[in-house]
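Hi support team,

I submitted a single chain yesterday and got back a structure, but I'm not sure I'm reading the token output correctly. Could someone confirm the output below corresponds to the sequence I sent? I've pasted both exactly as they appear in my results page.

Thanks,
R.
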Amino acid sequence: MIIVTRIGPAWPSSFMVEVSSADLLFEYCVVMDRITFDTLAADYSTEALIEATFRFLLDRVPNADIRPLFELARMARDFPDFEAELPRYLAMSSKQ
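Hi R., thanks for writing in. Yes, this is the structure output for that exact sequence:
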């Protein structure tokens, strides 16, 4: 399960993300600026974008390999297929 909670001001926004798997709980902090949000998912909520990002990440790396603090703007640099794959993950989001 992925739980996304906004913890910062409007922009740039910070989010606490909790990912539970079996009996384990992983916590992350994600920072996102307005330009990144508008570029990637302006038709969705900020929470939907963060959730979709984590679904994308979890399909590629184990929970323990995700950095505990990162900027969403770096995703395309770290994962070249992120922007192309993101719409599919946004469509699956529970927070449109």
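A quick pointer for reading it: Residues 46-58 form the longest helix (13 residues). Let us know if anything else looks off.

Best,
Support desk
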